[in-house]
Amino acid sequence: MSAELPLEPEKAITTADVNQMLWNRYTDKGEHVLLFNVPNIVGINSNRYCDAIAVGMWQSSGRLIQGFEIKASRSDWLRELKDVTKADPFIEQCDRWWLVTADASIAKPDEIPLSWGWMTATRSGLRIQKPAQHLPQNETMMKRLWAFALIRRAFERGGKDSPEFAAMKRELEQQKEREIKDAIARATARINPAYQELQDRVEKFERESGMKLDDWRLGNVGKLARAIHAASADGYAGYRKTIERQISSLSELQTKLTAARDAIESPGLELNDDD
Fold first, then answer.
1. What is the tally of structural domains in the chain?
2. pLDDT value at position 4?
3. Same domain for 230 and 205?
4. Is 126 within a domain?
């Protein structure tokens, strides 16, 4: 009695999905500050942008600065390969540098520069395909214009149009979706046994009656069921009343027949032959 639903096609992972995965990975425990679209310097002279920067704020995170180049297509990555030195202004300031692809087929292992790490997006999150090397940076020094660029980007991150805000909004939406799915699952777990019991009853009725409920020749099954149920509910009391009325009628008839017989047999009654 139930129909199978068609499976929805699996959607491709987008740049926004990858941003969300980075956000989940590096801000979940509060160990990092994650910034998107960070310029190489602050001011009108900035001409290059890094897709994402994670700044480790805790000693447990190593207080490392990690940069991310995000690619959502093979063609985009091949264009990047023609001049990987474009990332050098950022790599010079980072302790680790990562290529992050939306799919494992976007890049090949032998294409990844030696010092770069490589992460791929999966339905369950980011997976490390190649660990990033620790770059030999001076951990006590940072270029002033780069530091200003980070500070400026951190100041702007709270805007409603910022990728950070979009990532936080999406995380809240995903959390709400999970809560709704959990609620539906709990409701389904409660409803399914009752539905199964009803289905079993319908199948039993059809099996024992030899009729299908969707058979148009049955007419209004609901009225018929109510009539049968009413007769069943009246039950013994209804049958008893009917029998008592029949007994009363028979008793009256017996009385009349007895009176007629007695009148015929009475000695005072004379019948003429002509009658």
1. 3
2. 44
3. no
4. yes
Residue 25 and residue 138 in one domain = yes
Which of these, 26, 72, 68, 25, lies nearest to 49 by C-alpha position?
A: 68
> Over the stretch 115-140, which tens digit does the pLDDT of each residue have?
999 999 998 899 999 999 998 876 66
The rounded Cα 52 to chain-centroid distance in angstroms is 30
Question: Structure tokens of 133?
Answer: 């090397």
Phi-psi region of 62 (alpha: psi -120 to 50; beta: other; left: phi over 0): left
Give the orientation angle of helix 15-27 with respect to helix 163-209, to 10 degrees: 100
Task: Check whether residue 122 and residue 39 sit in a common domain.
Answer: yes
Q: Match 């940072």 to its residue by tokens.
A: 142
Residues 227 and 242 in one domain: yes
User: What residues contact residue 56 under an 8 Å CB cut-off, 6+ apart?
Assistant: 31, 32, 62, 63, 64, 65, 66
Looking at the fold, whether 90 and 189 belong to one and the same domain comes out as no
Tens-digit pLDDT profile for residues 213-268: 665 455 555 666 666 666 555 555 666 676 777 777 777 777 877 777 777 766 65
**Token pair of 219, please?**
């007419």
For residues 56 and 33, membership in a common domain is answered with: yes
Q: In what order do the strands lie in the sheet with 117-122?
A: 32-39, 49-56, 65-71, 96-101, 117-122, 125-130
pLDDT on residue 164: 59
Cβ-Cβ contacts under 8 Å for 61 (sequence gap 6 or more): 31, 32
Instruction: Count CA atoms within 13 Å of residue 186 on its CB side.
Output: 5
Task: For residue 189, give its domain range.
Answer: 160-218
Residue 4 lies in a domain: no
Q: Looking at the structure, do residues 232 and 141 belong to the same domain, yes or no? A: no
pTM (two decimals) = 0.53
Look at residues 42, 41, 43, 100 and name the one whose alpha carbon lies nearest to residue 66: 100
